[in-house]
Amino acid sequence: MSDSTAPPPQSTRLAVLIPFGIVTLIWGSTWIVITGQLGQVPPSWSVAYRFAIGGAAMLGWALFRRVPLALDARGLGFAAALGLMQFVLNFNFVYRAEIYVTSGLVAVVFALLLVPNALLGRIFLGQRLGRQLLVGSATAMAGIAMLFIHEARVDPGSTTRVLTGIAITLMGVCSASVANVMQGTQTARAYPMASMLGWAMLFGATIDALFAWVTTGPPRFDWSLSYVAGLLYLGLAASALAFTLYFGVIRVIGPAKAAYSGVLVPVIAMALSTVFEGYRWSALAAIGALLAMAGLVIALRARRPNR
Fold it and tell me: Using the 8-state DSSP alphabet, how is residue 304 labeled?
């Protein structure tokens, strides 16, 4: 029996760190790209288009690698549930949240994904919770509270909008967390990643399209270069590629540690929000952002949260 206390080999560390780096860079930029998708096309239709592209790309990749596309009844049910939580609820909440608050603030709030991931991982996957993880999470939430206060002071009339945006984001966080924990189960490991993700995205895109049609009417599309380029980036890089890497990491180290990729994502997102959205910083906002990041780093340094 191998020694569980021995550090992982360098190859294993790189197999986790390299995907982490790629996912962080991609998802750090998606928040600002999503803002560009909010225009004449209703958010639900944009979400549907995104995951139709991502799902088709995943199944195409599976065909190229000669991975079986067919799933049994259990696999199809799992893919449908994953699609509902990750590619319907999560992203419809995120797109709508950016109507109310800046993309950088949505990214910071979404970084708290590690909290429900750790809790649900403890309940459903038997992973341990440490004091350091709890302290770090509390510190991060204090930082989020300061960011909210900053937004309310900048524009007192927007308090309701900011609170609405944060609440919608938190609903997206909870939906994403359920999907993350699903990827840590034995059921997820029983099926090829490309096929499972491809069908989950297509199931999600179908539900998104039905929801969009019922709530906003027939499909609408924006043929401008910025919208189409953003849609392709979100569908191919931020969905097909990034989710493959991220869910692969979850299967190796568990959902609690995988959520630590959110430590740097908000930093990238808020920097882009400052440049492109004119996000107004103050001492309170800076301290809040630093607290949020510090709390996440404290949680990151917790010993063996994935055991």
Answer: -
> pTM for this structure?
0.80
Nearest to 51 by CA among 22, 78, 85: 85
- DSSP string of 164-183, one letter each residue: HHHHHHHHHHHHHHHHHHHH
Along the 307 residues of the chain, how does pLDDT read in single tens digits?
A: 334 444 444 445 667 778 878 888 898 888 788 888 888 899 999 999 999 999 999 999 999 999 999 999 999 999 999 999 999 999 999 989 988 887 777 877 887 787 787 778 777 666 666 677 778 778 877 887 787 677 666 655 577 888 888 899 999 999 999 998 888 788 888 999 899 999 999 999 999 999 999 999 999 999 999 999 999 999 999 999 998 888 887 777 666 666 666 666 777 777 787 787 777 778 888 888 788 778 777 766 665 444 4
